[in-house]
Amino acid sequence: MAERRLLFSLQLGFTLVVCAFLIVPVILSMLAGLTANYLSGVQSGLTLRWVGEVWSGYRETIFLSIGISLCCLAGTLVLGVPAAYVLAKRQSALSRAIEELLVMPVAVPGLATALALIVTYGAAGAFRTSWSFILVGHVLFTLPFMVRSVLAVLSAIDLKTLEEGAASLGAGFAQRFFHIVLPNCRSGILAGSLMVVTLSMGEFNMTWLLHTPLTKTLPVGLADAYASLRLEIGSAYTLVFFLMIVPLLLALQALTRPRPVKFVAEEEQP
Amino acid sequence: MTQATKPLAIRLRNCAKTFADGTRALQPLDLDIGAGETVVFLGPSGCGKTTTLRIIAGLERPDAGGSVLFDGEDVTALPIEARHVGMVFQSYALFPNMSVAENIGYGLRIRRLTRSEIAARVGEMLAMMRIEALADRRVDQLSGGQRQRVALARALAVRPRALLLDEPLTALDAKLRDSLRLEIDGLLRRLGITAVYVTHDQAEAMALGDRIVVMDHGRVAQVGRPREIYQRPATRFVADFIGTMNRLSGRIEQGRFVTAAGALAWPEAPADAREALFRPEDVAIDDGANPPLRGTVAAAFFLGDRTRLFVDVGGERPLVIETEARRDFARGQAIGLRVDSRGLMAL
Ligand SMILES: Nc1ncnc2c1ncn2[C@@H]1O[C@H](COP(=O)(O)OP(=O)(O)OP(=O)(O)O)[C@@H](O)[C@H]1O
Ligand SMILES: [Mg+2]
Questions:
Q1: B65: alpha, beta or left, given left = phi > 0 and alpha = psi -120 to 50?
Q2: ipTM confidence score
């Protein structure tokens, strides 16, 4: 008994240490964003001055990031869900190959993808300097996550028979897709969306190459702030980043949570 | 509930099926299914029952040259959604994103019935299948038997021209299967709907079918009423597949069939008969001094209401006979047998 309690305490301790290892720097960083003078520590007093400066200086990047990530989500939904559907329906060597190829943008370093985009479209002036250039990069990068997550759900259900069942009741292709396919891959779509928004929000490698001074996203701005300004501003920026993204993620996560299933005993009518 | 639409006559003409990978699932097949008739496709696994059903449904196209006629009209090119047939799948295919009532009402929603019409019809179906209490359940909260009832209700709610069922009871346990089989039988008779029922369970086929289509390796081995199939099998395959069949080899001598274990009176025997086939229930124990056949008991199984005996008569396989339960038999015991000559067949 005592032995088990000891084991439990050790496990608990270890877990707490790991958590602390991950969380403490985040807390310290956010705290730094609220400290009047980082070098003299918290004793120098807490202030919202840095947060205010970030807000006035970098507000645009925050809105741009949110805008891009939502557009990116829309793009991956429109492209990714039908793509996953087709891949799930056609079980051929070609579809397997495409599925493998889909991980390429993830495997290839973001910088390489960004360079490829610049080489290809660099001359297209208006496009190159607009935020849609970054959007294209983000869609490329996040699409595989959407496709894979939807595909995983679609492969787990007997899609073919469900569709045949709907067809036998008179449903045409569009009705089957919207009434049966989409609702039944809801969890995959939501998980994919969570992934896409998070990745797009935080994407730095590729965006850093694709951005122009007028199209800075939040992470790029963050790097700027760390590199060129006071540490407090950078930290305040992190704080703002957190305040933006955590509620968004929580909301998405709440949507993704599967509805609880009640256990019902087998019962037969007489 | 009465069926609003007139039952459908289905006709298959020269329907063969070769799958993309070259599998010949079905040899050219012709079949007429009368309006209001229940036809059961029966056969071992892989013989092409599902394929035939899917061709009727419109989920599979027959090879070029084949056609499917509904009431004389060629529907070969129509997809399933335009054929207006109800289908019940072995795996039920209920929509997990909808409640029981929504599942049942789905076909009506597609047909753009008003909300109140849908509610009324769904209520009617729920009552018919005696699952009113389940209306708001999600389908993953149902037992197998309940799912099957929902699947039937859903298929029937749209008042289809014909009902197609692919092994609807296979996934259920034996007792439930029996009670649902009775229920389906009653339902089909009451509705008078044309039904095509696929199964590999011969008891199910016998109980439900007006006619049975016995299939073997993509071909129709025999089509007939259950009694015909059982009593007059057309081929050795049918004889062996349906029920238990005894075989005795021998030859005809002076109007009698002479075997190693004795001779049988067989007035209708073909002159070249080399083998006599008969069912267990046509054999009786003969305790007289001169029984036509003599053998020894190889095994005896007490089944409660009767005893099943395996009797060695010097052939390859022992004869199977069924006898009253009261008598005790010992292994190795010598017994005499006689066979009702009306039950003898040559194939
Ligand atoms: N989509 C397909 N592609 C290739 N071959 C197929 C396909 N569907 C069925 N087959 C083959 O066609 C033959 C007949 O199949 P079918 O499903 O009609 O059999 P069944 O009589 O329904 O058998 P079971 O009782 O096992 O359901 C089988 O050999 C099967 O392997
Ligand atoms: Mg089958």
A1: left
A2: 0.85
Q: Which of B80, B97, B137 minimises the CB distance to A183?
A: B97
Q: Relative to the alpha carbon of B18, which ligand is closest? A: 1
Least confident segment among A260-269, B252-261, B323-332: A260-269
**B23, B198, B220: which to mutate for ligand 1, most atoms within 8 A of CB?**
B23
SS3 B265: strand
For residue B179 and ligand 1, the question of a CB distance below 6 A is answered with no
Partners of residue A157 in chain B, C-beta under 8 Å = 96
- The encoded tokens of residue B117 equal 């019409």
Show me where the domains of chain A are located.
Answer: 59-256
Q: Has residue A267 got a pLDDT over 50?
A: no
Confirm if B320 and B282 have CB atoms less than 8 A apart: no
| Cα of A247 to nearest chain B Cα, Å | 28
Domain boundaries, chain B: 10-241, 246-343
Chain A interface mutation, best of B97, B146, B156, B173, highest count of A Cβ atoms under 10 Å? B97
pLDDT digits (tens, 9 = 90+) for A55-107: 777 778 888 888 889 999 999 999 999 999 999 988 778 888 888 887 777 77
User: Is A189 within 8 Å of chain B by CB?
Assistant: no
A92 touches chain B (CB under 8 A): no
Which is more confidently placed, A243 or B107? B107
Higher pLDDT, B81 or A45: B81
The pLDDT, as a whole number, for residue B126 is: 94
Mean pLDDT value across chain B: 90
Q: Please check whether residue B14 touches A, CB under 8 A.
A: no
CA distances from A107 to A87, A104, A110, A113, A144 (A): 20, 5, 9, 10, 11
Residue B146 clears pLDDT 80, i.e. is over it: yes
Predicted pLDDT of residue A258? 58
Angle at A72 between CA A69 and CA A75, to 5 degrees: 155
- Per-residue pLDDT for B255 more than 60? yes
Identify the band that residue A132 occupies on the pLDDT scale cut at 50, 70 and 90: confident
**CATH fold label, B246-343:** OB fold (Dihydrolipoamide Acetyltransferase, E2P) (2.40.50)
Which residues of B, range 28-87, sit inside 8 Å of A by Cβ? 57, 59, 79-81, 84-87
pLDDT band at B28 (very low <50, low <70, confident <90, very high): very high
DSSP state of B86: E
* B49 CA to centre of ligand 2 in angstroms: 6
B302 to chain A nearest CA, in Å? 31
Decide: B22 in ligand 1 pocket, CB within 6 A: no
Nearest residue on chain A to B57, alpha-carbon basis: A168
Q: Do strands B194-199 and B38-42 pair parallel, antiparallel, or not at all (unpaired)? A: parallel
Buried b / exposed e along A63-83 (16+ C-beta atoms within 10 A): ebbbebbebbbebbbeebbeb
Q: Which CATH number is B10-241 given? A: 3.40.50.300
Q: Which CATH architecture has domain A59-256?
A: Orthogonal Bundle (1.10)
